[in-house]
């Protein structure tokens, strides 16, 4: 028998309580957006560099880059966040009393500090997303016909001019759909930062869930993510349309 | 002085020898057609002269500037990068598949290199581009994107793009092969008018009728060799070479 009374209790929150929880989650929207923004800001340029390294004709560099991408895509982001977050505190403990350069370097590491948490979360996210972006960029770059390079060369353009004026603008158009996938995934992945107790929407929602013994805070959090993803979907739809001036 | 001089050019891909001991000259104002069956090396020859393929041996000179010379072992040595860049600007190239830049308007396609390679003033480059487009009968298409043009129009834009750098020599790599027969005519007309202006041109083509009408000389290639190099009348009507006659018969029938 399903206990409907119990379900009702679990969902039951007054309007005032719901407003209060929404307010708390809204405050935590800022750290969520910070993770989102900084990750994009650094992972896109890094992804471009990684793509270039992977296409490098000097094989060892290409192989090393492949290994990096394999690890980043082959292990959970949650695990990567935890490893990056604990790496320095572990080193600090290990170096304790050695009195060396490493100890003095790590003396400022405070795992409970908000700024340390944030930095480590961003590093993990950027390393992970750069790998995915790199593959998107590489696919885009390799899809440009060789004739475009040859036409540019025949016109006397330098390699840099060819890349930035001829190839890259065409690559951007081609990678918008794949990138929009990645960016929308990122907005939801920001919730993984709660594993190191970095306070963002997901962590706040879990705390409020316990606070009120109710699932409603989780639903509210879900609405937050849903709205963000919808806005991004619309934004990418707009960008795709804007880039549709040629085929 | 020859605009282009090629001496003993050879090129192989691994064991496959695609060009054997090719020699020919192109004089100022001449129109040369290169004909021959597929795989005869015509396109590779053109790609070699345009630095898309590295040659193994031979001496190439463009407008008196040495692009490659042979070292004591008979291996081709290329000039320095600055010289190679200068040579590139002396040669205009029109591709079989046009290779216009799809993200740029017709006008921008033409002004891109004059502005960013020759560092010409933008207004001046646009004026030149408009004049060229007028000559191609496309003045009203300046702000269109290539995807909105027919194949013949795209090819005319690509000819204008090549001419915008005022090259000494214009190369055509099968300029009508990607076009249906109706559109072929408009390109041939443009090439003919360029010939009347004494533009030096080398045309790789399968249009035999056209080649015989427009060319000062015709080069017939087969199996990586230059089999014949003569006037259209010598090659098309009075060839003493068995292979040439065989090839041309298939076209006439």
TrEMBL record, chain B:
Principal subcellular localization: membrane
Classification via Gene3D superfamilies: P-loop containing nucleotide triphosphate hydrolases (3.40.50.300)
Keyword Cell division: no
Membrane disposition: Peripheral membrane protein
GO molecular function: ABC-type amino acid transporter activity; ATP binding; ATP hydrolysis activity
SMART domains: AAA
Keyword Oxidoreductase in record: no
GO CC, alphabetical: plasma membrane
Domain ABC transporter span(s) in chain numbering: 4-248
InterPro entries: AAA+_ATPase (IPR003593), ABC_ATPase_HisP-typ (IPR030679), ABC_transporter-like_ATP-bd (IPR003439), ABC_transporter-like_CS (IPR017871), MetN_ABC_transporter-like (IPR050086), P-loop_NTPase (IPR027417)
PROSITE patterns from the UniProt entry: ABC_TRANSPORTER_1, ABC_TRANSPORTER_2
Location of this chain's protein in the cell: Cell membrane
Documented EC number(s): 3.6.3.21
Alphabetically ordered keywords of this record: Amino-acid transport, ATP-binding, Cell membrane, Hydrolase, Membrane, Nucleotide-binding, Transport
Family stated for the protein in its record: Belongs to the ABC transporter superfamily.
Protein name: Amino acid ABC transporter ATP-binding protein, PAAT family (TC 3.A.1.3.-)
């Amino acid at each position: 028998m399903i206990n409907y009374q119990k379900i009702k209790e679990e969902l039951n929150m007054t309007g005032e309580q719901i407003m209060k929880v929404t307010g708390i989650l809204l405050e935590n929207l800022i750290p969520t957006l910070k993770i989102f923004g900084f990750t994009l800001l650094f992972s896109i340029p890094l992804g471009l560099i990684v793509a270039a390294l992977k296409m490098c004709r000097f094989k060892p560099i290409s192989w090393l880059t492949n290994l990096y991408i394999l690890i980043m895509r082959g292990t959970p982001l949650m695990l990567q966040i935890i490893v990056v977050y604990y790496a320095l505190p572990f080193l600090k403990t290990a170096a304790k009393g050695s009195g060396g350069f490493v100890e003095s370097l790590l003396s400022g590491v405070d795992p409970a500090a908000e700024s340390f948490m944030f930095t480590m979360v961003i590093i993990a996210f950027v390393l992970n997303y750069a790998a995915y972006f790199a593959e998107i960029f590489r696919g885009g770059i390799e899809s440009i016909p060789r004739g475009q390079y040859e036409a540019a060369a025949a016109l006397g353009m330098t390699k840099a001019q060819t890349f930035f004026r001829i190839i890259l603008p065409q690559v951007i158009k081609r990678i918008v759909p794949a990138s929009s996938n990645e960016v929308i995934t990122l907005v939801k992945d920001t919730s993984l930062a709660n594993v190191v107790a970095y306070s963002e929407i997901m962590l706040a929602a879990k705390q409020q869930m316990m606070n009120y013994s109710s699932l409603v805070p989780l639903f509210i959090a879900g609405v937050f993510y849903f709205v963000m993803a919808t806005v991004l979907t619309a934004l990418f739809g707009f960008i795709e349309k804007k880039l549709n001036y040629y085929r | 002085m020859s605009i282009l001089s090629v001496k003993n050019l050879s090129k192989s891909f691994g064991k496959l020898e695609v060009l054997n001991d090719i020699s020919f000259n192109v004089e100022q104002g001449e129109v040369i057609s290169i004909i021959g069956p597929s795989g005869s090396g015509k396109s590779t020859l053109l790609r070699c002269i345009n630095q898309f393929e590295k040659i193994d041996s031979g001496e190439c000179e463009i407008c008196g500037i040495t692009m490659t010379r042979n070292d004591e072992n008979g291996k081709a040595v290329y000039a320095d990068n600055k010289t190679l860049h200068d040579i590139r600007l002396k040669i205009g190239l029109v591709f079989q598949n046009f290779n216009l830049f799809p993200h740029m308007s017709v006008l921008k396609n033409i002004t891109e290199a004059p502005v960013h390679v020759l560092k010409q003033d933008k207004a001046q480059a646009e004026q030149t581009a408009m004049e060229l487009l007028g000559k191609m009968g496309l003045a009203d298409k300046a702000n269109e994107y290539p995807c909105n043009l027919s194949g013949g129009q795209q090819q005319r834009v690509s000819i204008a793009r090549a001419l915008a750098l005022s090259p000494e020599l214009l190369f055509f790599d099968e300029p009508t092969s990607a076009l249906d027969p109706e559109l072929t005519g408009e390109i041939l007309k443009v090439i003919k008018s360029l010939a009347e202006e004494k533009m030096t041109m080398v045309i790789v083509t399968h249009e035999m009728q056209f080649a015989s009408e427009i060319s000062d000389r015709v080069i017939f290639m087969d199996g990586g060799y230059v089999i014949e190099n003569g006037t259209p009348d010598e090659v098309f009507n009075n060839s003493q070479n068995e292979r040439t006659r065989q090839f041309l018969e298939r076209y006439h029938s």
